Amino acid sequence: MDMETYLTIIQLKTAALMSAATEAGARVMGASPPLIKAMADYGMSIGIAYQLVDDYIDDETDSVAEFSIEHAYGAARRAMDSLGDVEDSVYKEKLIEMVELVIQMARSKDMSATPELDGRPLS
């Protein structure tokens, strides 16, 4: 499969789900339209990064032409960039930590790290 097709599949599945979730959260909280868009963009980018890393770790990317883990790092950077105009808060810190966790998983090639919220595992 070529990289473009692979990315389209990821965008239509995992990334679309994460984008809808982050956008919905912003809408429920009564966020402004720019913040809603920023959260949707964040969800799309972190969803792409996460799925790329997951497939990379599971060795499911061998059949993807031109695959590089750098694609995941690029998506992670886009997730961080989408938070640029988001007001500093504990919530923004947690979103940044999620990006850092995905990058850590890619670098260690290990998906077993458990994200935490307020010192408690989310799983």
Task: Walk me through what this model shows.
The mean pLDDT is 91. The longest helix has 26 residues, at 3-28. This protein has a two-stranded antiparallel ribbon with strand order 1-2. 67% of the residues lie in helices and 3% in strands. The chain contains 4 helices and 2 strands. The protein is mainly alpha-helical and 123 residues long. It has one domain (3-109). It has helices spanning 3-28, 33-57, 70-82, 90-108; strands at 116-117, 120-121.
Q: How many helical stretches?
A: 4
Number of strands: 2
Strand order of the largest sheet: 1-2
Largest sheet: number of strands, sense, barrel closure: 2 strands, antiparallel
Please compute the radius of gyration using only Cα atoms. 15 Å
Q: Can you tell me the residue ranges where pLDDT is under 50 for at least 5 consecutive residues?
A: none
Shape, principal axes of CA atoms: globular
- The helix/strand series, from N terminus to C terminus, equals HHHHEE
Percent range for helical residues?
Answer: 55-70%
Distance between the termini: 33 Å
**Overall domain count:** 1
Structural category is: mainly alpha
* Proportion of residues in extended strands: under 5%
Q: What's the quaternary structure here? A: single chain
Arithmetic mean of pLDDT: 91
